[in-house]
Amino acid sequence: MEVKKECNKCKKTDVEFFKCACGNVFYCGRDCQKADWKEHKPVCNYKPEPRPQPQPEAAPSKAENYTKIRKAGDGNFSEIWLVEKKDTKDQYALKIINIQRLRQLHKENDVVMEVHCLNRLADCDYVIKLYERFKDELSLYLVMEYVPGGELWERLRSFGFIAESLLKYFYAHLIKAVEFIHSRGIVHRDLKPENVMVDLDNKIKLIDFGTARDLEHPEVKGAGNSARGKRIFEHFVGTPHYMAPECVRNRDSNKKSDVWSLGCILYQFIAGYPPYLGGSDYLIFQKSQEKDPIFDSFLFSAEARELIELMLQRDFEKRISLDDVKKHPYFKDVDFDNIIPYSDIGKHISPFEGFLLEVKRKLVDLNGNEEENINKIIAEFKEVLKQREDFDEETKSRGQKWLSLMKRQARAHWHLEDFKWHSE
Q1: Does the residue 223 lie in any domain?
Q2: Structural domain tally of the chain?
């Protein structure tokens, strides 16, 4: 507002003035204001308001095209959601990766490796499909095939497969899956039952290639592991229970490293738990480096034991190849080019295996009072076993050992105690 005042510079009083933006002084014109600015600046409290800049509207994230149904899993820097695409109503598994957390852990290259491997293996029915990837300011998104059957571990449930025909069905498909990725030069490096999915047709899908290695494209590297962000351990990757000695020592990781992991998995398929257990990663590594697995004779046939020992040779150059695993006598009844349909497995389950599978079902389906009910179920089946007229005394003796093992497995399964092999 213009008023009659004194100019702060020339002191005129007979002209029209304008007020300085600070509200404390007046000037007769812009020239006087400019001339006085050096003197007035230290006491002027005027802070010009920044002009509002037009902001572009944020582009809608492609994540808005999907509706979350339920969370299916968590990782160190990601979540897996079952989602439905709004326009087609098709269901997918959406992996949502927290970018900030990914950077904090220095794992950006693991995402690069996973996308690289899934693209290279896109034509393999044994590998999860990647359909789309995109990002926004906060997250990376991988839209992948939804496999409704869950993890293969859910079929083991701490007790193993028990029925040999069931075990060999899944293991044969697992061998063929690993054989295929190896034919493309890709080493998985984190094979374990949790990284094998099962669809509704009982076919398997390998997942989680973030720590994989591509022997044909060495320029593509995962993040590896580092000690406080310093030295990178390129080969020290995977899950301790299944890590080959050369990976533990960070000396190498190759196709034979996956064979070691498969040996641990075969042991777990039979016995319910992997061969090397411990209360810490260090103790697990110590056992895998120094001790031999425990083979209870009522669990492991001579052929199964021999094969696992060949797969768990600590020197990978002496370790059996995947092709020779297929040719081993343990798999003499398996045609890898024509694996029996899942629907035919029941024809090959013996009465004794059926008996143990019923025990497993009862122990897995408990609903409260776990300790009391475990004792009750095992006691009941021990009596049933004694009464089975179709089992000879040798089979009954073996069954008693199985039931004692299953009691310890059930207690571990329901978190009543840690599982240990008896001879440890």
Answers
A1: yes
A2: 4
Tokens representing 209 are 């290639």
Which among 190, 208, 214, 258 is annotated as catalytic?
Answer: 190
With respect to residue 56, please indicate whether it lies within any of the assigned structural domains: no
- Could you read off the pLDDT tens digit of each residue along the chain, which spans 424 residues? 444 578 888 887 776 666 776 777 787 877 787 788 777 776 676 555 555 555 555 556 799 999 999 999 888 899 999 999 999 999 999 999 999 999 999 999 999 999 999 999 999 999 999 999 999 999 999 999 999 999 999 999 999 999 999 999 999 999 999 999 999 999 999 999 999 999 999 999 999 999 999 999 999 999 888 644 557 799 999 999 999 999 999 999 999 999 999 999 999 999 999 999 999 999 999 999 999 999 999 999 999 999 999 999 999 999 999 999 999 999 999 999 999 999 999 999 999 999 999 999 999 999 889 999 999 999 999 999 999 999 999 999 999 999 999 999 999 999 999 999 875 4
Cβ–Cβ < 8 Å for 81, 70: yes
Residue located via tokens 């087609």: 88
> What pTM, to 2 d.p., does this model score?
0.85
85 and 226 part of one domain: no
The tokens of 396 are what?
Answer: 């009954």
Q: Which of 34, 372, 344, 60 is nearest to 202 (CA)?
A: 344
Is 190 annotated in the active site? yes
**CA 246 – CA 320 distance, rounded (Å):** 15
